[in-house]
Amino acid sequence: MKRAMSIKDLRTEYHRRICKEIIRIRGDRESESSYPNFADGSSKSSRDIAWRMLRYLEYKDNEHRKPIKEQRVGDLFEEITKDFLESAFERLQHLRPGSWIYSTVRTSISSFNQYEHLAHLEVTVKQDKELASVLGRDYIIKPDIVIGRQPVSDKEVNRRERLIAKTDDIARLTPLRKRNYKEPRPILHASISCKWTIRSDRSQNTRTEALNLIRNRKGPLPHIVAVTAEPLPTRIASLALGTGDLDCVYHFALLELEKALNDLDNADQCDMLNMLIEGRRLRDISDLPFDLAI
Question: Which of 107, 174, 208, 268 shows its CA 20 to 30 Å from the CA of 141?
């Protein structure tokens, strides 16, 4: 009988796919200028950390691998991360039951119950150029990964015992109850931004999206997180430090990053990493499925 995959097994498979499908070596492999494509080639610290991480990820270099475009890297990172989260979160159904949807097709938040009013606003703005110049269009967000929960039928509500009847004049407004809407929409449970690497302009964009999710909702706030492969803690800090917008930042291989920094004895980067972890602003990708169950 085949053994069920644990969260650790899924994490290992996640890394195997990233190593095989995304990671490539840039530059001349025979010189010190070569580096993994999640490092900054102009930064020695970034190159050294990334190379050391690859050892712990058991990356097997293959010079015959086809080159990969930067845009494709981002798409694959989203897809592979989504697959990991779906597999892991589904195994936690006993902690957070429900019917869930997972998507990386840049689904507009107006497709979800808390933000469906934005669809009407978008139509109005398109027809009024003056209004468009005032409001802009930043409020129509299409997250890299979305997780939504489907509303439930009364039959499901009453599965264990009779809790509500059609004739009851109560619970008529909650979006969790399917019968309350002619066209029920899923409830946005999580908005996940994926950043293969981090630059200051990219981190600002992620924060702006997070603030719009907070301000424009009509209903419960979804989890708002970011996932990155950035090897430099000082750059991760540009996204992770502070509170009020993102719940937390998750690293695709935080354990391997810690080991790499300890090996290299990079005091500045180690200090920043420890501050982010101890300040509960940075966690490993394996923590995210559990945090989604909260």
Answer: 174
143 confidence band (pLDDT: 50, 70, 90): very high
- The predicted structure's pLDDT at residue 244: 81
What b/e readout covers 206-231, taking b as 16+ CB neighbours within 10 angstroms?
Answer: bbebbebbeebbeeeebbbbbbbbbb
Q: Which domains does the chain have, with CATH numbers?
A: 70-159+172-292 (3.40.50.10010)
- Spatial separation of the C-alpha atoms in residues 277 and 16, rounded to whole Å: 25
Q: What is the 3-state secondary structure of 96-157?
A: CCCCEEEECCCCCHHHCHHHCHHHHHHHHHHHCHHHHHHHCCCCCCCCCEEEEECCECHHHH
Given this model, what pLDDT does residue 30 score?
A: 58
In angstroms, the CA 231 to CA 35 distance is 12
Query: Quick one: average pLDDT of 31-55?
Result: 91
CA angle 192, 37, 5 (to 5 degrees): 55
